[in-house]
Amino acid sequence: MDPHLLEQLNGERRARRAAVLVTDLSDGAGRLIREGEMVSGALGEVVARAFRTGNSGLTEAEDRSFFINAHLPQPRLMLLGAVHISQALAPMARVAGYPVEIVDPRTAFAAEDRFPDVPLDPRWPEEVFAERPLDAYTAVAAVTHDPKIDDFALKAALDAGCFYVGALGSRKTHAARLERLKSLGATADQLDRIAAPIGLDIGAANPAEIAVAVLAQVIAAFRARGNAAKVKEKTA
């Protein structure tokens, strides 16, 4: 690989940004494409699919052969609240390939014996995010029912462009939450991105079933990222 391309690619990977390396097999010329860059024609469709799926491989486009090498950051799930839903959701998410971290300053909830082998951070979200910033490959699920914990984190997730932002609570609770987030400067488009009530509507009746609904919604959002219409269709 061209050392300059390799340096660029490694920079994107360190910053947890997606990139696709396209190699023209006719002459070995390479091109690094960052997520969000426009690529026209049939090759553009192939590249867009690589960003959605993370799959690499050979492809034919514009009467030429290319090797598409997709480099996507591993998606991660940040749970706000060490509650029963989180106890069920954390192991499910790990099996699905989403590393989980739980943030809850209420130390009575964030106890290691309740969450074996799950990273727990008993600090406020403001402190955690300053040390480990959110990004477009992070999903944030707020399940504390505590505005003092959830509101800042939800606004930060929206500002960071997290691919999924969900919040537990009834429609009445969420309406009040939206007003608070507006006062923090959230735009109408940002507020429309919040999945609330959280999770797919599968009639979930207990914490484990809610966890299944949330994980399914997270996966749908990840696979449809960049296509808001598709996200709404899958999560409606």
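The above is record 1. Record 2 follows with the same two-line structure.
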Amino acid sequence: MRFGRRIGAIAPAKLSKAALLAQAREATGLEDFGDPWFERPMDVLLEAVRGEARLNDAGTLAAEKQFHHVLRDRLYAQMWFDRHPEILARPIPHPVVIVGPMRSGTTRLHRLLAADRRFAHLRSFETISPVPRPGFDEVLAGKAEDFRPKLARRILRVARLANPRTLSIHPTGPFEPEEELGLLVASMWGMKHEAQWTVPSYGRWCEGEDATPAYRHMANLLRLAGWSQHESSLRPWILKTPQHMLDLPALLRVFPDARLIFTHRDPQQVVGSAASLAWNQTIIYSDHARAADIGREWLRKTEVMTARMMEARKTIAADRLIDVQYDAMDRDWQSTMARVYRFLDLDMDSALPGMKRFVERSRALKRKPHRYSLAEFGLERDEVYERLERYIDRFDIPIERGRAEPGRRLRARA
């Protein structure tokens, strides 16, 4: 990238809102971005990217491409809504939403449920590119091929070349079930930005804002995905992304009949794994990332997420939620899933063969285990346990034994 810029083959990235909006309009020939609310988080994010992220040459180019991709998709989404108003009329009945901290087993649970054909789910290429391109009517008619899976395959290949560890941290493929994080990014919203760039001011700004407009747009993109899949609007969606830990009130305003599955894991594993994921992405885009800073930020973020989740749960009826321990899923996933299915009032027998196939396929996808430690990020487990003691006690989370801890209940477990 540096060489390309030196010889003039690659133009400097444009990271101003006016330039990015104009570039998207010019590329598509469209004008309507939909609800202008997204410009508020976009302003804050751009300022943080320019002032805090310290991106390298590859990082600035990738950032420009990402902003362009999101803005172009907003224009195309509004085009589809205008052409096919029936899209926005599609119901989203009683979705099943998995809510848990990063790295707490949400992906495994999501993909097990996605193996059941009674549920609808997003595929990886649809969260990377949520919006079909112009000409998709030809795809619907069987006269052309959807370009998005090819694009997703290229993007995943580049990500693995940039840092091969990404495959062991979050194994995926274009058609694997995937979370709706990209649908929130469509409103310039969410932790994805914090996990790839050093933008603490943006993260704290989002923590103080109402995310309802971002969730409304996410719901409309789900409707668009269902329409493009020829998906029955009667099948409940399976949703999950750790962002819901922060934004449960917004999620429940948009999906008032959602059924919620909460996942829990030893906080030292959650914080260490989340910091590792963020570190392995941030170092692609910046040469100035510091592991200790990333560790501190994801400890803070996990503390905020768990506190806000616990507060929001006070308003949710007990028969609408269930708690699942990561350790229980590790020990006996079939028994744990049977308990989840009883909560959903569904028979699990028809889904079990698909779940077993997923378990076998996931072993093939995950070539190497994800290895990390708190020490890599300047953290100690006693501090993690102390900061997240209320969360551990509230959900009786199994934690690592053999330590001296402040706090009576933690000492008792040790």
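The chain has one domain: 17-379.
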